[in-house]
Amino acid sequence: MQEVLNMIINTIKNISIWSVLDILVVSYIFFKGYMLIKETRAEQLLKGIALIVALLPISYLLRLDMLYFILSKTITIGVLTIIIIFQPEIRRALEHIGRSAFDDLHVMQDDEALEEVITELVNAVANLAETATGALIAIEQSTGLGEVISNGTELDAKVSSALLENIFVVNTPLHDGATIIRNDRIVAAGCVLPLSSNTSINKKLGTRHRAGIGLSETSDALIIIVSEETGTISLAVNGRLTRNYDKDKLKSILMRIMINRREKRVKTLGEKVKVWITKIKRQK
After folding, report:
1. What domains appear along the chain, each with residue ranges and CATH number?
2. Do 122 and 254 contact (CB within 8 A), yes or no?
């Protein structure tokens, strides 16, 4: 016991500021990794892997040779298995990391122009909700939606409530699918979105809602869904769905999210520019 205490004391004495920084960075990475897989299939799979790792030393100490052999071989091929099983989550994590300050943030800089577009959008959504007309609208942000746009019908038209309402009229060619908005343009309609594989989603929600959540899981787009059964307005952001919006509440939350993201990005860019300027001055 004394040896253990001495080892702990010596370790504490030898801790430097870089060791603390190293621990904080690793802790942050683990935290962000957990948040990415929270409430997904990967969370349950991770618990199973943790159980296997915990059983390995126990089976060795208790001389359960067959169990130890199976578990050790399972871990040997575990890395490849994890890559295959966690492919959607790994892709999601890499896309999340790839949203750097150099991404093209598709948010207008003019607040008045932004408000005009959002007003046209929420007016259309409110009118569609009144008639319980199903709708799925995605507002592109820093993650490009080129793949989604390419599988639909490209339009490149100015955002207007009349056009949006017309797109989702039942039995028209473009009503069954998602409409993509980039800045003040409707760039495509009738687009097919990836369905969410989250098993915790309410079973009462249909394909339209699962598609909206699915796109929000793989991008930072803002997805508005209007239920064709109840006319309920929902918003999917970062893999989470919130429901029961009215016109004013939806406009307020969209404006707040888009302006906050723009200001955060501008601040980040400003800080990086300052660092670059400082480095250049030091080199001179």
Report:
1. 2-97 (no CATH), 111-266 (3.40.1700.10)
2. yes
